[in-house]
Every structure is written in C-alpha cells, then in structure tokens.
Amino acid sequence: MRGTLSDRTGAALLMAPLLLFLVLAYAWPFLGVVKWSFTLPTPGLDQYSALATDPLVQSVFIRTLRIALIVTLVSVTAAYAITVVWVRGSPVQGVIAEFCILVPFWISVLTRAFGWVALLSNRGLINTWLQSIGFISEPLALVRNEFGVIVGMTHFLIPFAVFPLASAMRSLDERVLLAARGLGSSRMRTFWTVFVPMTRSGIIGSAMIVFVFSLGFFVTPAILGGGRSVMIAELIYLRIFQSPDWGLGAAISVVLVVFVGALMALLFRSVKPKQLV
After folding, report:
1. Count of Cβ atoms closer than 10 Å to residue 60 Cβ
2. Are 169 and 81 in contact (CB under 8 A)?
3. Which of 18, 44, 143, 164 is geometrically suited to a Cys-Cys bond with 120, CB 3.0 to 4.6 A?
4. pTM for the full model?
C-alpha cells in the first residue's frame, strides 16, 4: 500500500513541472484572451453578438470549415493508401513509404509553402510546362485561391494522418483476415468488409487530428491564399494586430478553442488515446 502511495506521489511530482508549464504558457494567457472578449472595447457580450451577425466573420467561418473538411477527406484518403503500403507492403515498399512520410518533417512549413508557390504560380513549373506542350494557352489559376490552400495544407497534413492509421493497422488481428479469405472472400471484398471496418479507430483519429489542425492553419493559407482565401486564424491575426478590434479577435479565438475542445472530447470518447500512437 505504501509502495502504491509512493508511486503515485512520485508520478505527481514528475508531472508537476509539466502541469505548471501548461498553466503558465497556455491556460493563463487564454484566460486573458477570455477577459478581453468580455471587456474590450466595452464590458458585455457585444463581441459574441457580433459573431452571429457580422457577415465577414460568418463567411470566414464557413470557408474555414469547408476547406478543413476537404483537406481532411483528401488527407485521410491519401494517408490510408500510404499506410497500407507502409504497414503491409514488402520491406522495400515499407522503407520507401517510411522515407516519404518522414522527409516532410525535415522541411519547415514556410519552405514548403513557397515551394508550392514556385510550382503553382502563373509562371511556375506546372503552368510553364503545360503551356510549352500546347495543352493550355493561358496560365491556370492554381494559387492565391482555395485550390492552392487545399493543396498546401493537404501536403503538410498527410504525414500526421498516417500514424493513427498505422497504429490501427498494426494492432489488427491477422486471424480475422485469414478466416475471411478461408471462407472464400476475395481480396477486394476482404479489404472493404473486414480490413477497413477494423481500422475504424485509426480513421476517426486521423480525421479528427487533421480537421483540428486545419482549423488553426495560418502560414500556408496566408501564403497560398494570397489574402483571397482568409481562414479563421488569419482573421484573428488581422483583428488583433492590424485593426483596433481586440475584443472581436479574442471572441473568435475563444469560440475556436471551445469548438476544438468539443471535437477533441468527441475524439477521446470514440477512440482510446493509446490507439492514436
């Protein structure tokens, strides 16, 4: 009994610095933002009322949700295919897939965003090549719009979607797949009716992680959107740092944090945390 109590005390002491850091670095500043949302420019709920009536804020919220949903769908689909090769492919295929998954982590988000600008701009590699072979006469609008934002965000987030899927696929019971094949099920039917449902926790985890990351994206939409596809994080930046409207910026931040918190609570209700790693 003494040993158990000692273990718990030791664990609490080890976690105390981390908890203190989280409170000082995140919780305390966030409480300040909450205070701004209720007190600037005048005390009251005016800023939250403005959220429900301001057409600009509503359009940015809708655009952010639309882009986040598309990025989530494309990222999880691509990550699922990559993870299948990584986990269940041959050793050579696994090494190549692992290399492709890890390399993006070595390159900063800023470098990747400008790399996509070099590829997708009017004078970029793709438009120049398509015009040189006579496929198009005028450059395609591939950047400074939602398409460019979605491409850049999807490229950044695919590696984050891979790991929950890999965890789910590696914990899968192979005997179930062998039983399905033994009962005469084709490879394709086994994949869609047995393999995919058994990796449901990984799919949910990947989708939630990518969606939450997408809601708070700032650098990639700011560069690839060119100010024409403003998302919620960029709107908060503009309200707080480029216009004297700190109260509305703080109110948007609070709503976004509450929304993300609700999504994470839903995630942990559906999937155990250890299934995400």
Report:
1. 21
2. no
3. 143
4. 0.85
